[in-house]
Each structure stands twice: as C-alpha cells, then as structure tokens.
Amino acid sequence: MRCEIVRGMLAWALVLALADCAVTSTPHVAPAPPLPPPAPQPPPPPMPVMHRAIQAHWIFSDGAACTATAATALLSLDIVASPSDIAISVRLSGHRGLPRNGTLIDFAGASGHWSVTAHGPSRHKATATEPMSEDAAGRVFVLLSGGIVHFGEPGDGLLTLRVPDGGAPARLWFECVRHDLQR
C-alpha cells in the first residue's frame, strides 16, 4: 500500500507538471511594418559671401556733364549729372560679373541711406538713371559725405565699397550739379 500511495503521489506530481507545461495558444500578431526612413533634410542656405569694404578715392570733373567717380582697382561707382538726368553706374573689372536681373546699389552713411537698382548692357557695368530732381541731387549729395556702398543682394558675393567724405573738392563739384538742377 505504501507503494500505491507513493505511486499516486508521483502520478499527481506528473499530472501537475504536465499541466504546467501545457502550451497555451495566444493569437498571433504580425509585427508592424518598418517605418520608412526619414526624409533627408534640405541643405542649409549658403552663407552670404562677406567682403571687407574696399577703400575708394574720389575723382571729380566737370564739363558738358558733372562727373564724379569713387574708384578702386576692382570696382568703381560713377555719377554723371546733366541738366536732364543723373546716372549712377557701377563698373566691375575682373572675372566676376554683375547679376543679369539688375544690381542693387545700396548706400548707407552718416548723412542718410538710399537704394537704386541698376541695369546694364554688359556683365561688368550697370546704370541707374533718373530725371534730374532735388531728390536725385540729394542722393548724390548724401553719397559725397561718405559711407558704405553695397552692390547686389547679400548672397551675390559682390564687393563692398567704402566711400570717403569728398570734402571741399566734392562741395565744389556739387556746385556743378546744383547748376544743372537749376536749368
């Protein structure tokens, strides 16, 4: 009888062990599809090309038209005043050309700020022309007092011109412009 009790206990232990090892079925869940890779980020905008301002010097002349030039070896800013109009031109020497869709000429100095858009027949010269008026002559007068002239938009990589105060020669030359204004 003792054997039967031990056998009974072993049988129950076996039944319990097998019941514990029984495989329970759980529903099969398919894994989620992998996420697509993230879209590539656009490249950052290019940094504007910054140039140190090139120091110019003034050249004044009068005759049939009043002409002033802020000149450097690479770049010049020409002002031509006649009784009918005032033309402000930028001329570049070297391999780099001006933008084809117009060149912004932006002046800032202690006496004021102004901007004009110049267009040109070539990649190395662009001109903004406007009728002779007190406003146009005033822009020239402000330019003669000195400041910084930026050409083009910041990303164009064009040079920057530092224009000195023209002093007494500029004031004498401006008398020519004033004479044309009064005609």
Report on the structure:
The mean pLDDT is about 80. With about 180 residues, the protein is α+β, with helices and mostly antiparallel strands. It has helices at about 1-20, 135-145, 165-180, and strands at about 55, 55-60, 65-70, 75-80, 85-90, 105-110, 110-120, 125-130, 145-150, 160-165. Helices cover about 25% and strands about 35% of the residues. The protein has one domain. The protein is built from three helices and ten strands, in the order αββββββββαββα. The protein starts with a helix and ends with a helix. A hairpin with a 3-residue loop joins strand 4 and strand 5 (about 85-90). It has a ten-stranded mixed β-sheet, covered by helices on one side. The chain is rod-shaped and about 135 Å long. Helix 2 (about 135-145) packs antiparallel against helix 3 (about 165-180).
Keywords summarizing the entry:
183 residues; ten-stranded mixed sheet; 26% helix; 34% strand
Q: In a nutshell, what does this entry contain?
A:
The protein is an alpha+beta fold and 183 residues long. It has helices spanning 2-21, 134-144, 167-182; strands spanning 54-55, 57-61, 66-71, 75-81, 85-92, 103-109, 112-122, 125-131, 147-151, 160-163. The protein contains three helices and ten strands; from the N terminus they run αββββββββαββα.
